[in-house]
């Protein structure tokens, strides 16, 4: 019964585009207190959002779930070839990461096929505070790191790991200014990476592309060069995916 009521509310809002609690009650025959409580539950979970004073619309989280063209396989059809080109041209491993709930996960890696040695970043979850792919996403969605449960959970992996919330906030400001994130021995000694998101809003803000290599290869000038290359790639990919480039991309340095 509870799930049916939630589904009914989502159907009403989805069909109307925007709806007030009164309109939801009129369409669903739910008592106003019940409808209001359920709407607030849906808002808190990201399935609905407040669109105007007293009105509600379908939330970003539900849109991400229902848009099949944003599934991993569909995105990789467009993104994987571009990452492969980057790996070949720069002689380093390039990767795609995606926000999964409260985690960022590397879901695809392209490696150079030129015979040069390279570092493979592996796939799987990455900490929000100690990897470029995650920090890039956190920079455009700082609320991901604003939850109280994060306090005391900034695990130290090396002596270079950021473990202070204040220092992390400064780092995210720096990332927003540059347009890309760097990780220099924060997760593992001797390893560095650079990453940027595919957009500042929407699905693009939950995806990041990046590259990784040893600190010997990814010197500060090289990281800057890779960062700019990644920004250009993000522009190309946003356009190819049909996203609004004016709104979707991070500010270029």
TrEMBL record:
Give coiled-coil spans as residue ranges.
none
Q: Which GO terms describe its biological process?
A: negative regulation of DNA-templated transcription
| Location of the HTH iclR-type domain | 1-60
Which residues are listed as membrane-spanning? none
Query: Does this entry carry the keyword Transcription?
Result: yes
Q: Name any one GO molecular function.
A: DNA-binding transcription factor activity
SUPFAM superfamilies annotated for this entry? GAF domain-like (SSF55781), Winged helix' DNA-binding domain (SSF46785)
Q: Where is the IclR-ED domain?
A: 61-243
Keywords of this protein's UniProt record, alphabetized? DNA-binding, Transcription, Transcription regulation
Give the protein's recorded name. Glycerol operon regulatory protein
Q: Give the originating organism.
A: Ruegeria atlantica
Q: What is the lineage of its organism?
A: Bacteria, Pseudomonadati, Pseudomonadota, Alphaproteobacteria, Rhodobacterales
């Amino acid at each position: 019964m509870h799930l049916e009521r939630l589904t009914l509310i989502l159907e009403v809002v989805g069909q109307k585009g925007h709806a007030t609690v009164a309109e939801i009650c009129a369409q669903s025959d739910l008592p106003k207190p019940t409808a209001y409580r359920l709407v607030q539950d849906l808002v808190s979970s990201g399935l609905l959002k407040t669109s105007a004073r007293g009105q509600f619309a379908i939330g970003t989280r539900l849109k991400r779930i229902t848009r099949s063209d944003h599934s991993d396989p569909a995105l990789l059809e467009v993104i994987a070839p571009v990452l492969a080109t980057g790996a070949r041209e720069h002689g380093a491993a390039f990767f795609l990461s995606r926000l999964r709930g409260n985690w960022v996960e590397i879901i695809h890696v392209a490696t150079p096929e030129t015979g040069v040695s390279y570092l493979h970043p592996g796939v799987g979850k990455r900490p929000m505070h100690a990897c470029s792919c995650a920090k890039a996403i956190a920079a455009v969605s700082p609320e991901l790191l604003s939850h109280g449960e994060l306090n005391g959970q900034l695990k130290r992996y090396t002596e270079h790991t950021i473990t202070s919330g204040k220092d992390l906030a400064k780092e995210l400001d720096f990332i927003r200014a540059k347009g890309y994130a760097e990780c220099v021995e924060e997760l593992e000694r001797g390893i560095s990476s650079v990453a940027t998101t595919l957009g500042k809003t929407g699905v693009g803000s939950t995806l990041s592309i990046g590259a990784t290599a040893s600190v010997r290869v990814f010197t500060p000038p090289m990281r800057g060069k890779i960062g700019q290359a990644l920004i250009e790639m993000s522009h190309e990919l946003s356009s190819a995916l049909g996203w609004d480039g004016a709104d979707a991309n991070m500010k270029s340095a």
